[in-house]
Amino acid sequence: MRRVVVTGMGAITPIGLDVETFWNGLKEKKIGFDTITHFDASEYKAKLAAEVKGFSAKEYMDFKAAKRMELFCQYAVAAAKEAIEQSGICMEEEDPYRIGCSIGSGIGSLQAMEREHKKLLEKGPSRVNPLLVPMMISNMAAGNVSIQFGLKGKSLNVVTACATGTHSIGEAFRSIQMNDADVMVAGGTEAAVSPIGISGFAALTALSPSTDPTRCSIPFDRDRNGFVMGEGAGVVVLEELEHAKKRGAKVLAEVVGYGSTSDAYHITSPAEDGMGAAKAMEYAMAEAEVNPNELFYINAHGTSTHHNDLFETRAIKKVFGAHAYQMKINSTKSMIGHLLGAAGAVEFITCVKSLEEGFLHATAGLENPDEELDLDYLKGDGVFMEIKYALSNSLGFGGHNASILIKKYEEVEK
Fold it and tell me: Does the annotation mark 338 as catalytic?
């Protein structure tokens, strides 16, 4: 099977508009939570979000092109630009039909729907923007990235709610393994901090009603009461190893395993025994031929909802048994909130940086673990720890589970 490596990464997040700023923010336990500014949320149940701050689309793309994109697409193009530039790929020297795109969004543009629905009601159907559909639909993140950078290979939009980013990268990994592409620009993007987005998730009682930025997104804490909506994008360049070596690319990490399952249980709750998530982890490790005792770090889905954190913990214990107590587990959502379709992609980037620097960030805000949540969730401060593997989990509404296993790059497979 063809080996697949990471050669570029890009991020737009609530705590940084590039990978290094984002990563430094994680190391410093910087939180991105504040009062919602995208609209007046004073009457809403949830008043906090992790918004992207200081983003200007014209710094990343042509102004005219940006005007034809909704925010989720702008974030994707900006993150892809950073990832492609880091990878050093020169499109003029490549076969564009061997370079694909797999960038998903869980929702697309709620803002476009809200805006044009208001026009429909107030001014009639003739006033609806003729670009509503291509601006709203979720596949346009992949479409716009492909257009902006001339990627003519396979173009995918995986939509699996909160597992979208991980599935997008996993399916890109498969595409290269199976020789459908030599390079894939992959990840997730989301910009759903809008009136209908916040009110819908709040009505579902999924969002934290907390007004304290330091105690709103607190994964694995006994006082957790819902997630905080975040926004942004994470995009990586995956590449077949020999293709990367031939052009002298710097390899950041290697993707070695990918597992995907369905709970087939409930539209919002994970399976109570964690079996679906457990199987996804097992499949990822089995593909990589990694023994569970060789793994010491998991970047958890860790949403800060009661059910997710409990059932994910059960899944980890089911897979790793007594070894689970020797492992380090953290939640990036403790600082940037839940980026929905972008979450898994940004957390994948976190895993690569953790492998590169030998540092595992803290789960910020965690003070009082629940009785059954008795693993090492990196309460307090992060730790310097050399690791060979990092496993990233994502669980989505509808029962979608995805796990991806990343390895510190070694020139020769051991």
Answer: yes
